């Protein structure tokens, strides 16, 4: 069975997600006066909400699109860790793949907004690498479950979960033929040689290579050279309003951004890596998978806060 757009339904797939799990805390309200205590706005809170972030949001994207997900990551032995597990379970995402790290802070990002304008973000997090015992426990869970999964997505936010040892385990899986997709940050940018899909945004690409690009030709040349040197099958670089670029052995493809009113880019990168990987795992070529990811990103950017989309919303955006 295939969809009208030529691939197997997402509900035939199971994707493993590994990386830094976060909880996003949103506080929305109205500012109508300045505090008499200091020259700062007073927010009259109207709404408060917790959403999944980081690797947890990718897991939610996969589940919302109809596929099965296996989430592997770390949480702390604190109140935010309990809240994180409860929130995952409320969305129907299993927590069997989570490893508790004693004395570690669970990542919580609190965004405070006046109507839809963010005023400040407050982060509770710990970014030093997890210890050897936690790394070993994560490795065990990966190797136990990977055989039942169709692909592995790594969400490396530089929060300490992706240690060199764990990255090595994942690269070896790619060498064995497992589809491994990576959403990288600066610390381990050069450590994922040999993976299937590597998806930084443009800023992350510049930071990872420690250089600035003055024009598109220099960016395109360096990106293709980087892909070859790192033995990456597909390099996808997202560039905001300029769309995204796909680099592979056949050359470079540019996908212009879909015209749509943008409310919030939070979580758009999570949606891109999810759709890229799911579509590719379902048998689509990477050009089509990238076009699908571009459409998916346009949908979630039209929503407020870290968001996901359904398979129906994705198919509707493709029809448009």
Structural class: alpha/beta
Detail the poorly predicted runs.
Answer: none
Strand content: 25-35%
Number-wise, the strands total 13
What count of domains describes the coordinates? 1
The H-and-E topology, N to C, reads as: EEEHEHEEEHEHEEHHEEEHHH
**What is the CA–CA distance across the termini?**
23 Å
Please identify which CATH superfamily we are dealing with.
Ribokinase
CATH architect. name = 3-Layer(aba) Sandwich
Would you tell me which CATH topology applies?
Answer: UDP-N-acetylmuramoyl-L-alanine:D-glutamate ligase
**Portion in helices:** 25-40%
Shape call = globular
Across the major sheet, the strand order is 5-4-1-8-9-10-11-12-13
Put simply, the count of helices is: 9
Q: Class in CATH?
A: Alpha Beta
Mean pLDDT: 90
Main sheet properties? 9 strands, mixed
Q: From the alpha carbons, calculate the radius of gyration and give it in angstroms.
A: 20 Å
Structure, explained:
The structure is a single chain. The chain is α/β, with parallel strands linked by helices. The radius of gyration is 20 Å and the shape is globular. Helix 1 (55-64) crosses helix 7 and helix 8 packs across helix 9 (311-319). The longest helix is centred in the C-terminal third of the chain and has 15 residues, at 286-300. The chain has a single domain, classed as UDP-N-acetylmuramoyl-L-alanine:D-glutamate ligase (3-Layer(aba) Sandwich), CATH 3.40.1190.20. The two termini are 23 Å apart. The protein has helices spanning 55-64, 79-90, 132-145, 164-175, 202-209, 216-229, 268-281, 286-300, 311-319; strands spanning 14-19, 21-34, 41-54, 68-76, 98-101, 107-114, 117-124, 151-155, 180-183, 197-198, 234-238, 244-248, 251-255. The strands form two sheets. A nine-stranded mixed beta sheet has the order 5-4-1-8-9-10-11-12-13, sandwiched between helices. The chain is built from nine helices and 13 strands. Strand 2 and strand 3 (41-54) form a beta hairpin.
